[in-house]
């Protein structure tokens, strides 16, 4: 679920659209930790290129 969410947000950003993620306790049982993990995923696994709106996996 986390990776799919990050991918959808990333796609929206590349396309110049806004993205909103609603999180509750149903999926993983702890919404604050889910939000923290989602916010850290793009920084730890992906790098935005500076010359184009593409993302490289590192």
What report would you give on this structure?
There is one protein chain. This protein has 58 residues and is mainly alpha-helical. The chain has one domain (2-57). Helix content is 55%, strand content 10%. A two-stranded antiparallel sheet has the order 1-2. The longest helix has 15 residues, at 31-45. The protein is elongated and about 30 Å long.
Give short descriptive properties of this protein.
58 residues; mainly alpha; two-stranded antiparallel sheet; 3 helices; 2 strands; elongated
- Compute the CA-based radius of gyration: 12 Å
Helix run count? 3
Strand content: 5-15%
Global shape = elongated
**Fraction in helix:** 55-70%
Secondary structure tally: strands: 2
Biggest β-sheet: count, sense, barrel?
A: 2 strands, antiparallel
Structural class designation? mainly alpha
Number of domains: 1
Q: Low-confidence stretches at least 5 residues in length (pLDDT < 50)?
A: 47-53
Give the distance, in angstroms, between the N- and C-terminal Cα atoms: 20 Å
User: What is the H/E string?
Assistant: HHHEE
Strand order of the largest sheet: 1-2
**Mean pLDDT across residues:** 77
Please provide a brief summary of the model.
The protein has 58 residues and is mainly α. The chain has one domain. It contains 3 helices and 2 strands, in the order αααββ.
How is the topology of this model organized?
Layout lengths: L1 H13 L10 H4 L2 H15 E3 L6 E3 L1
Antiparallel strand pairs: 1-2
Helix pairs in contact: 1-3
């Amino acid at each position: 679920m986390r990776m799919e969410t990050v991918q959808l947000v990333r796609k929206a950003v590349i396309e110049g659209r806004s993205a909103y993620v609603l999180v509750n306790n149903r999926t993983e049982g702890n919404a604050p930790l889910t939000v923290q993990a989602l916010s850290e995923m793009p920084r730890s696994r992906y790098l935005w290129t500076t010359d184009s709106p593409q993302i490289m996996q590192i």
